[in-house]
Automatic annotation (TrEMBL):
Database matches in Pfam families: Ureidogly_lyase
InterPro entries: RmlC_Cupin_sf (IPR011051), UAH_cupin (IPR047233), Ureidogly_lyase (IPR007247), Ureidogly_lyase_bac (IPR023525), Ureidoglycolate_lyase_dom_sf (IPR024060)
Reported cofactor(s): Ni(2+)
Job of this protein: Catalyzes the catabolism of the allantoin degradation intermediate (S)-ureidoglycolate, generating urea and glyoxylate. Involved in the utilization of allantoin as nitrogen source.
UniProt GO MF annotations: ureidoglycolate hydrolase activity; ureidoglycolate lyase activity
Name of this protein: Ureidoglycolate lyase
Length: 165
């Protein structure tokens, strides 16, 4: 019987073992441009490694997933962090897992608002982009360059993600 996962709200503290939350945190804000702009400073850090590595900025246009969703795999990027910040403003899921001897452990599912992004730490297990209820664009900062930066592992048994909305 596949294991039914619970969905947690995305908070900095809960997500801390996996990376950082990217959102307009007042504690990070200072005014610039003569007071006309609020700069939410250094919300996350891109972490890229390996000769020839470059930080790149992309747009991912994700199709909404259908729910309940059978989660069968996780991936990670050993050479770089990867951030996702919604452009269009809809809810989405950040799904991560602790490392368990080189394989992903029990997944954790975080429901992000349309104003929340995340930066997955380098080599952190996560599921590929999961838009929820509409085709959704995300600004993605990750790594380009030589070397294999994608490891995928399939679970022996699937997990089920219930409908988040
Ligand atoms: N493969 C790719 O560029 N996308 C994944 O890394 C993802 O996390 O969505
Ligand atoms: Ni990824």
């Amino acid at each position: 019987m596949p294991h039914l996962l619970t969905i947690e709200p995305l908070t900095e503290a809960a997500f801390a073992p996996f990376g950082t939350v990217i959102e307009a945190d007042p504690a990070s804000m200072h005014l610039i441009n003569g007071g006309s702009t609020e700069r939410f400073h250094a919300l996350a850090y891109a972490d890229m490694t390996g000769d020839g590595a470059r930080v790149i900025i992309n747009i991912f246009r994700g199709q909404p997933r259908s729910f309940p969703y059978r989660l069968t795999m996780m991936e990670r990027h050993p050479l770089g962090s990867q951030s996702f910040s919604p452009i269009g403003g809809g809810p989405w899921l950040a799904v991560v897992a602790p490392d368990d001897g080189g394989k992903p452990g029990l997944p954790r599912v975080f429901l992000a608002t349309g104003s929340q992004g995340v930066n997955y730490g380098r080599n952190v297990w996560h599921h590929p982009l999961m838009a929820v209820d509409a085709v959704s664009d995300f600004l993605v900062v990750d790594r380009d360059g030589p070397g294999n930066n994608l490891v995928e592992v399939f679970y022996d048994e699937p997990f089920i993600i219930p409908n988040p909305v």
